[in-house]
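Lecture notes, continued. The same structure-token format from the folding unit now serves as the input rather than the output. Read the line below as a description of shape only.
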């Protein structure tokens, strides 16, 4: 990563974390509910047999309703598990039992016997701190999703969930930053 892009991302993250901390719990709850409803009513969700979704951190769009519905709908559900400082796997879950706090305190499956590559998933819901209209996203800085999604040919299969109040007009990026083809806000 170029030093200029790294510096610009660090400054933007600092600004956005302040904006994020000012979001009210009522806004986060209502916006998350709307975003989840939009995902569940989308053709991408309806047509997907396999779905990978993140388990949200505070002040990220929630995914718990999507997770429960995907399991009830009989979809093959995968969630991220960080297995090193640089690698994330999509691990299949059949229910929420066996989840333990993992990287960043986020629940992760203990059993990693069944995984799937990004290219083999029908729908991938991607978190962000912010996103821009051109599909650039700003994550939390570890690069897990960029590495996971690299080379997956994601057109139409990856969707970034972002609060409207966290959108940016422009996000600095390098060549390895993956653009997400669709962003859903409330």
């Amino acid at each position: 990563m170029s030093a200029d892009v790294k510096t610009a991302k660090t400054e933007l993250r600092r600004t956005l974390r302040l904006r994020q901390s000012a979001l009210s719990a009522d806004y986060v709850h209502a916006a998350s509910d709307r975003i989840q409803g939009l995902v569940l009513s989308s053709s991408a969700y309806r047509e997907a047999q396999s779905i990978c979704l993140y388990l949200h951190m505070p002040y990220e769009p929630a995914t718990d309703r999507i997770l429960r519905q995907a399991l009830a709908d009989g979809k093959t559900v995968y969630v991220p598990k960080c297995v090193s400082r640089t690698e994330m796997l999509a691990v299949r879950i059949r229910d929420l039992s066996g989840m333990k706090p993992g990287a960043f305190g986020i629940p992760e499956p203990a059993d990693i016997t069944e995984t799937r590559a990004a290219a083999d998933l029908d729908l991938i819901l991607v978190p962000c701190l912010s996103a821009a209209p051109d599909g650039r996203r700003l994550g939390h800085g570890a690069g897990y999703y960029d590495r996971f999604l690299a080379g997956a040919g994601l057109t139409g299969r990856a969707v970034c969930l972002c609060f409207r109040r966290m959108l940016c007009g422009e996000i600095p990026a390098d060549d390895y930053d993956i653009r997400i083809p669709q962003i859903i806000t409330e």
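Point for the exam: The domain at 3-184 is CATH 3.40.50.10420 (Rossmann fold).
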